[in-house]
Amino acid sequence: MFTKILIANRGEIACRVIKTARKMGIKTVAVYSDADKDALHVEMADEAVHIGPPAAGESYLVIEKIIEACKKTGAQAVHPGYGFLSEREAFAKALADNGIVFIGPNTVAIAAMGDKIESKKFANAAKVTTVPGFLGVIEDAAHAVRISDEIGYPVMLKASAGGGGKGMRIAHSRDEVAEGFARAKSEAISSFGDDRVFVEKFIVNPRHIEIQILGDKHGNVIYLGERECSIQRRNQKVIEEAPSPLLDEETRRKMGEQAVALAKAVNYDSAGTVEFVAGQDKSFYFLEMNTRLQVEHPVTELITGVDLVEQMIRVAAGEPLKIKQSDVKLKGWAVESRIYAEDPTRSFLPSTGRLVTYRPPAEGHADGITVRNDTGVFEGGEISIFYDPMIAKLVTHAGDRATAIEAQARALDEFVIDGIRHNIPFLSSLMQNPRWKAGTLSTGFIAEEYPNGFSPLVAEGETAHVLVCVAAAIDHVNNERKRQISGQMQTQRPVRFARERSVILNKTRYDILVDDSGDELVIRIQDDSAHVHHLSFEWAPGEIVWRGTIDDDQVAVQARAILNGFQLSHAGVTVDARVFTRREADLFALMPEKVAADTSRFLLCPMPGLVKFVLVVEGQEVKAGEALCMVEAMKMENVLLAERDVTIKKINATAGDSLAVDAVIMEFV
């Protein structure tokens, strides 16, 4: 077994590998760029080596620098994580040439399966069912259009060396193919150093289901069930779960056996994933094979009890698999949410900055529920513009799907992040979505459920009652605290605050009665049904998360102080809550409303990013839908379009400028 390994990656996956290596008694070496000198993975590792500037092309993607770091520290093997060099055949070969073990599959398997075009050809030869498409290299946009016309629309343009949704576009017409081809090539060369793009038929209303495989160097290959990864946006996974709510045992076995057959054909000898597109009728087609550890591997680990990183290390060291196919039993259900630094209310555009507050829910196992948080950040750290915007992967496991989803929703309510925009409000609202709860999924789920983009849920029904109760409970604690502070109450007599109060959530008023005479706080909401709620909790002023039970249901609500009240967040709803006496509530209703400034005459930068180019000039008349400029952030190129017919009055930014969110790019007449 190795005594020291190097992790050729960063962020949460580097931290994840370090945890298992530490458990196995193996020392670890981290590598880092200038942007990551204070990163968590650097602190966790036993040693760390600086490898260059922030840009991945000058640091994490430079093979020679990784090998030099191995030699400098005496690392015997390299775990590549995912992304970066993880599926680069040249990297595995270079390591072998220098006597360093690659903790991943052999180079033949990487060459055959790691390239999407070649893997399709190989799968066809192995009689694996594949999606119709053109498997050769596409010369230019015109060639892509001709091929798409032959296949039939819609089509998918994909970077051959791609992953993580980069270099991928869906096209429904010839014009969209031409535009998508240019963007896919540009993103592919930027992210992977390989601009080859191929085209395949896009299956309408598909589901994305993948099989986790594990092989050794002695010819043994097994599959460890499937993961459903249909909840995606921009072709990048957002929610994953295992097993899939679509599959039955027979379909699972057929997919697993196909995946194993494909792996055996290339003598696959590590952890890998065979991805399928599945129809709602349980038909399935091979998409590609990822010859690396997947981002979503934790859900498989939780339902099987298998540490995939440990198995990869043992296989790389030459050990045979001790797990047989008959040993693989799927237990319970696991759900994973990817926490991203992005603004879901602005089409999920990336966000960067300092994590002023970062407090994930407590990890561990209790009452049949497991909470796990894989992360590579810490409170006070920076979310950089140079890398993927993932902050963490929050995973919950329970005995069944419904309970795992409930646990995930509660854990998201407890996940506190301040300082940057993030997608937790979206993830929380998704956990309340009836279609998600029913398991009626497709890769078009987000576009179909949020056709006009994401807007936070409105406080109504049961959720509104929860927020009213929590607002009243916080107000009660604060009032009791005031009674005990010397000099706060200008009277010598005991003070009792009015039991009749009003809670205002945004603009909606709820009149309530508060009773604290027993062991619980009892709140009567005086609406048509006169709801009575019983609260038990331990919350102290200053705590961001209110935890307790309301009518015996466990509840977590985030509460942040605002002027004359609190901002409350729960189950995808964020509201301003204020608790008044009845007279104060009457007067509050008379207060003038502040009107937001009109920004319709400006093009504002929707996220921190780099201006790639400006496509218009001052004085130019532009029609609605025409491109104005392109801004690049976190490896994604975003073309900003005119929302209406305008004339360009002034341009404030030029190519190469680095802009903050809401910076004015140009002004309109």
Detailed description of the structure:
The longest helix is centred in the last third of the chain and has 24 residues, at 461-484. The chain folds into five domains: 4-103, Rossmann fold, CATH 3.40.50.20; 132-201, ATP-grasp fold, A domain (Dna Ligase, domain 1); 339-448, 2-Layer Sandwich (D-amino Acid Aminotransferase, Chain A, domain 1); 461-588, Glycoprotein, Type 4 Pilin (2-Layer Sandwich); 602-668, RNA polymerase II/Efflux pump adaptor protein, barrel-sandwich hybrid domain (OB fold (Dihydrolipoamide Acetyltransferase, E2P), Beta Barrel). 27% of the residues lie in helices and 32% in strands. A nine-stranded antiparallel β-sheet has the order 14-13-10-11-12-15-23-21-20. The protein starts with a strand and ends with a strand. The model has no long low-confidence stretch (mean pLDDT 92). It contains 17 helices and 40 strands. Helix 4 (89-97) packs antiparallel against helix 5. With 669 residues, it is an alpha+beta fold. Strand 10 (207-215) and strand 11 form a beta hairpin.
